[in-house]
Design a protein that fits this description.
binds pyridoxal-5'-phosphate, four-stranded antiparallel β-sheet, 14% strand
């Protein structure tokens, strides 16, 4: 199975077993492979797990975010704030509505936007903010909500990487606002590709379920159950953002192991944290005491005054058979934004883009593999 990564510590390995394979095979044999009963079951499991009333599955987190924005009334001419320090997918969801992303600076320790950096980014046309819980660590939501409420801004949570993370003892996705998760293999649990909106807003659920399936008033499954007597109507134009039952079947198995997966990653992070406590050049992830981090990735910052730069460390790690990654590039550096954002600077985001990197972390990673990563990193930092 791992022949692709022989003698190599990969950045991640999807944690899939015979149970997932059997679950997909069962769906294939059932005669209903597209969106159907398995998707409904998976939605209910995720809503229960995060503590939300409802969940709407989609084919990716990007489409979940697009639907969350659109069902929040975001449209052309609006501005939506998004951290500069995030992946293009978050900004893409804003573009899909016709609105304009407005970038915000982050906090140096948490890598997240704060009440202050949000307030500093607000424009006359700001209608919403994509609250990205970056790399699995929750934003300090209470002060952020105070600012959002003061300015009448809607908050949509991008919890793509943060499934299982907690803020003040509550799981993200269950804080009462629309929250979006990703089930890409780089995230906490996987369906290969997939996304989910969790929300307590019944109206949003109804609208999002129609929009994900071409805008039709009834689903294929409802029509099937009614033996063809129901006819769908279109009250709006929509998309094809449907998750398949084959993907949901994988998700259902993964959900049964969600606690185990989350714990495995937390234990691996704790093992790295302990090892790096005696390596002053390596700053491990910071976790405020009222939060629980979901370690979809383990991100370090190099604090060595540039003695050996991050790209050199990455190259040396690769030479030792350890796959790492540069962390996140500032969005305003991307060619697409260069014209509109020329001359704008986000010093913290820019510094972190140059000094941070991801180390391998995934359920099933062995302690011997972690030791190899730690030893290789310490060696790679030597001048
Ligand atoms: C991965 C990721 C996304 C995109 O998720 P997809 O399921 O690939 O659409 C969005 N936001 C953040 C912060 C992510 O890490």
């Amino acid at each position: 199975m791992n022949s692709l990564f022989k003698d190599q510590v990969p950045l991640m390995r999807p944690w899939l077993g015979e149970e997932e394979i059997e679950a997909v095979a069962e769906v294939m044999r059932s005669g209903w492979i597209s969106q159907g009963p398995k998707v409904i079951e998976f939605e209910e499991m995720v809503a229960d797990f995060v503590g939300a009333k409802y969940a709407v599955a989609t084919n990716a987190c990007t489409s979940s975010m697009h639907l969350a924005l659109r069902t929040s009334g975001i449209k052309r001419g609006d501005d939506v704030i998004v951290p500069d320090f995030t992946c293009m997918a978050t900004a893409n969801a804003i573009h899909h509505t016709g609105a304009t992303p407005i970038f915000a600076e982050i906090d140096r320790d948490t890598y997240n936007i704060t009440a202050e950096t949000l307030e500093a980014a607000i424009t006359e046309n700001t209608r919403a903010v994509m609250a990205v819980h970056q790399i699995g660590l929750p934003i300090d939501m209470d002060p952020l909500m105070d600012v959002a409420n003061k300015h009448g801004i809607k908050v949509i949570e991008d919890a793509a990487t943060a499934f299982g993370a907690e803020y003040k003892g509550k799981r993200l996705g269950g804080l009462g606002r629309p929250s979006c998760f990703s089930f890409h293999p780089r995230k906490m649990i996987t369906t290969a590709e997939g996304g989910m909106i969790t929300t307590d807003d019944e109206g949003m659920v109804k609208e999002a379920k129609a929009l994900r399936a071409t805008g039709a008033s009834i689903s294929d499954l409802e029509r099937h159950k009614a033996k063809g007597v129901l006819v769908q109507e279109y009250h709006d134009f929509g998309y094809n953002y449907r998750m398949t039952d084959m993907q949901a079947a994988i998700g259902i198995v993964q959900m049964a192991r969600a606690d185990e997966i989350i714990q495995a990653r937390a234990d691996q992070a704790a093992y790295y944290d302990a090892a790096f406590a005696s390596v002053p050049e390596v700053v491990p992830p910071y976790v405020p005491s009222n939060m629980k981090h979901a370690y979809s990735s383990y991100k370090i910052r190099l604090d060595n005054g540039g003695a050996v730069d991050r790209d050199t460390v990455l190259r040396r790690m690769a030479e030792r058979g350890i796959s790492c990654r540069t962390a996140i590039q500032p969005l305003h550096w991307e060619p697409y934004y260069q014209k509109d954002w020329a001359g704008v600077s986000f010093p913290i985001t820019e510094e972190l883009a140059k000094t941070t990197m991801f180390l391998p972390i995934f359920p099933g990673m062995t302690q011997a593999e972690q030791d190899r990563v730690i030893e290789s990193l310490v060696a790679s930092l030597k001048q």
